[in-house]
Automatic annotation (TrEMBL):
Protein name: Terminase
InterPro entries found in the cross-reference section: GpA_ATPase, GpA_endonuclease
Source taxon at top rank: Bacteria
Lineage start: Bacteria, Pseudomonadati, Pseudomonadota, Alphaproteobacteria, Hyphomicrobiales
Sequence ranges assigned to domain Terminase large subunit GpA endonuclease in this UniProt record: 351-653
Organism the protein comes from: Methylobacterium iners
Record-annotated Phage terminase large subunit GpA ATPase domain positions: 80-336
Length: 740
């Protein structure tokens, strides 16, 4: 054996067995040189295989990416604004699998997408995938944004492979960098665009566009395009899917729907007038007479008396009501960050909503926003563009029977600490059940409502019970999925109903009546309602009546129905109840029949549930309430309906409740504005105000009572008493059904 170290690292070469020493020497010399070159190449390759050190994406983009004048008026280093930087840094968080960004246009989305693709392919060395609406849009992104950013950046230009003698080596759809990473660009409208591709970082641009909805249904449909896109990241250990876009129309806005599944982050900033406090810019835009008016957080402005044009604009502080000037915006945003608003979102799913008030575009100042607001008030055709492009909210088409979730949520107000608002005289609750599936886990939902004089109501709280305590195999406590109406579920519902509600006078109230929808798993639901623990909590079994399109049945009836198993339940006229609920949602908060809501429910799914249904009309003029988009969750709406039915049942039996909540009809005008919230045609034939819910059809003055002997004339009150004392046809079971 011979040591050879003249050509690099020490190499051990075998001695050549040859009869001629000259051949042996030549062999050793040739082998040494070749082996040294191979060793050096292997060492260089090994260095290239070592992952680049972790760096902050914002710093890396600033140091390595240059924007040419051709694609941006801000030519030079790619410097992300505070909101862009906060979004980009979420991409690097361990465990984050999806980041949503609901935004207005001209928010730097293209540069953010380009920066993400370049960072993950150029620095991380991972495959990236970018989706646009069409192939043409994807090519425009490549030609006008991505490719110039790569070629004009000296630190990155070497990553592009040189063209071969035969022509272009990499087409715009598939670029292979010298790092081995691929940049793939696709249009979702192209068949097969979700096949044979993969990416650790996947950017989905303008996800609310109709192109992402096209071809998803029908026999030849492939289903949700976003779901197919997400599967392109399954090969990677820590992938990230970025979904961004400007909202469009409720029910067809993918970006907003995905944001609702996230932690629903808001960009929170320190308040310049309240040290130690933080707040967001909320999209409540209102004209006021002067800066002395206090309406709560939101954009405020005054108009010139002579011209009617806006002449002053400021943001009202959420904490002190003081004026925050737009000149403070940049410094506030520099110190801000994304703060999640809910803890019930999908694991690893982050989100951010921001509207035009955050924009640093000189053509999108606060004065521009309030001018657009004045214009959309005067011109209905500008309302959807204003909602989508300025407020970054999905548009709910105006027309019969439509309501907007964000408009409904504007009624939220701060309730007193430690007790209910003054005016609450009685409390009811409604309980609905969801079997789970595409709308989430199996669960019970409860809405507590307080009622006062004139049936003025206060939504007190919404409770979602979707799990029960358990232990895993190691004995550690975990939350297990709930089985509706199981013993564990029953105990959880009872515990929720045992909550004390304290009035302003210190009196402790419990729900006077609780109506539970028994439409799901009826036998077990009825057994739950008639259990002695439920009866102690004044639980009443209720079931929505089957009503033909256009028909309206009384909200409650004098007689309960009886199931085949012998359990009683109360039929509920849900269409009439929804007429009442939606009409009252249209009233200005404060006064008889209006509906208040607490501030802690402002961002709750309650409002999406209340906006889930609309008033449908057929060619014969018959109207009925139903979900606008099939599969949309509306459990909270049903809970509110059943809570109102519970009040009607208590009014029918309790003079105290009836007198306390007496409605003064003359004090309630017909609501103006949205026709969805005005009285609807009864029975699909003639318009009019629906009757008081507890009245139904009045009793006749003469009624034949079974066993009273002939056709004796009995006054109506006596008839009611006789009916109440009459024996029931079936006995009531007080035990639980199968499984209890």
């Amino acid at each position: 054996m011979k040591q050879v170290s003249d050509h690099g690292p020490d190499l051990v070469l075998p001695t050549c067995v040859s009869e001629e020493p000259g051949i042996d020497a030549v062999y050793l010399d040739i082998s040494a040189k070749g082996t040294a070159l191979f060793n050096r190449g292997s060492a260089a390759s090994a260095d290239a295989l070592v992952p680049n050190p972790h760096v902050d994406i914002v710093d890396w983009l600033r140091d390595n990416v240059r924007l040419p004048y051709a694609i941006s008026e801000r030519a030079g280093p790619l410097v992300l604004n505070p909101i862009q930087a906060a979004v980009a840094r979420r991409w690097q968080r361990p465990g984050v699998r999806q980041m949503d960004f609901v935004k207005p246009p001209r928010f730097g989305s293209s540069l953010l997408n380009g920066g993400g693709v370049i960072f993950f392919s150029g620095h991380v060395g991972a495959d990236t995938l970018f989706y646009e609406r069409t192939e043409g849009d994807a090519q425009d992104f490549h030609d006008k944004k991505l490719y110039p950013m790569l070629t004009e950046s000296p630190e990155l230009a070497h990553l592009l492979r040189a063209d071969t003698r035969s022509g272009v080596q990499d087409a715009w759809m598939d670029r292979i960098l010298t790092t081995g990473a691929s940049i793939q660009l696709r249009g979702v409208m192209t068949n097969g665009s979700m096949r044979a591709v993969k990416g650790m970082f996947i950017a989905v641009d303008e996800a609310s566009s109709p192109e992402y909805q096209a071809g998803t249904a029908g026999k030849k449909g492939e289903g949700s395009k976003l779901a197919l896109i997400k599967r392109r990241a399954q090969e990677f250990n820590d992938p990230i899917v970025y979904v961004g876009g400007t909202p469009t129309v409720v029910g067809f806005c993918l970006t907003s729907e995905e944001y609702a599944k996230s932690d629903q982050g808001l960009f929170m900033m320190p308040s310049p007038c309240c040290p130690g406090e933080v707040q967001e810019f909320w999209d409540d835009i209102q004209r006021v007479d002067s800066r002395d008016v206090r309406l709560g957080k939101g954009l405020r402005y005054t108009c010139d008396d002579a011209t009617g044009r806006p002449n002053d604009v400021w943001y009202e502080c959420a904490h002190c009501g003081g004026a925050i000037e737009e000149t403070d915006k940049v410094s506030m945003m520099d110190a801000g960050d994304i703060v999640p608003q809910v803890t019930t979102g999908e694991e690893g799913h982050l989100g951010l909503w921001a509207w035009a008030a955050y924009s640093t575009d000189p053509q999108c100042t606060w004065m521009h926003i309030v001018r657009d607001n004045e214009a959309q008030i005067k011109d209905p055709d500008q309302r959807q563009p204003f909602m989508n492009l300025v407020r970054a909210r999905p548009w709910q088409p105006e027309g019969p029977g439509t309501v907007d979730a964000h408009t409904l949520a504007d009624r939220c107000e701060a309730y007193p600490d430690g007790h209910m608002p003054a005016g609450v005289l009685t409390v009811t609750a409604g309980v609905d059940t969801q079997e789970g599936g595409r709308n989430g886990k199996p669960r019970h939902e409860i809405v507590f409502v307080g009622y006062g004089e004139g049936e003025e109501s206060w939504i007190l709280d919404r409770v979602v019970i979707d799990g029960v305590p358990g232990v895993d195999r190691d004995g550690k406590p975990v939350m297990e999925d709930l089985e509706p109406f199981s013993p564990d579920a029953a105990r959880a519902v009872w515990a929720a109903l045992d909550r004390d509600w304290v009035t302003a006078d210190g009196e402790v109230l419990r729900p006077e009546a609780v109506v539970v929808d028994v439409g799901y798993d009826m036998n077990r639901a009825l057994a739950f309602c008639h259990h002695r623990e439920s009866r102690k909590r004044k639980v009443i079994a209720g079931k929505g009546r089957r009503e033909a399109h256009g028909s309206r049945m009384p909200i409650i009836t004098k007689r309960a129905s009886v199931s085949k198993s012998g359990y009683e339940f109360q039929p509920i006229g849900t269409q009439s109840a929804k007429d009442t609920v939606y009409r009252r949602l249209g009233y200005k908060v404060g006064g008889a029949e209006s509906i208040h809501a607490p501030e802690h429910l402002r961002r709750d799914a309650l409002w999406d549930h209340l906006a889930a249904e609309s008033l449908h009309t057929d060619d014969k003029g018959r109207t009925w309430w139903d979900v606008t988009k099939p599969g949309t969750s509306n459990e909270a709406l049903d809970c509110l309906v059943y809570a109102y039915a519970a009040l009607c049942l208590r009014k029918a039996k309790s003079r105290r409740v009836r007198e306390a909540s007496a409605i003064k009809l003359e004090a309630r005008p017909v609501p103006a504005g949205n026709p969805a919230l005005a009285p609807v045609a009864l029975n699909g034939s003639r318009p009019g105000v629906d009757p008081l819910p507890n009245e139904g059809r009045p009793l006749a003055g003469v009624r034949r009572i079974s066993g009273a002997g002939g056709r004796a004339a009995v006054p109506a009150p006596v008839a009611d008493q006789a009916l109440g004392n009459a024996p029931r046809r079936f006995g009531v079971k007080h035990g639980f059904g199968r499984g209890w």
